[in-house]
Amino acid sequence: MVFVSIYTVPPENRNAAQDRFVKTGGQPPKGVKIMERWHSAGGGRGVTIFETNDPQAIASWAQQWSDLINLDIYPAIDDAAFAKLLH
Q1: pLDDT at 38 over 80
Q2: Any idea what DSSP says for residue 78?
């Protein structure tokens, strides 16, 4: 299943979040595949598209970052799947 994560970094956590990202590469746990990730030019927010069949792995990953960033994670479907719902 595909998920979207939108993150924001509070200004007071910027340096710590950047340091952690540099050290870890922001890599997800086993069972979660990053499809795409974009960061705003200012670095205070971004979007990650990832795929997994293990929602617990997503929760674990979110917990690893929840002390520094705010995460909004939700399942997503593509245009073709959404179009089937319209009629």
Answers
A1: yes
A2: -
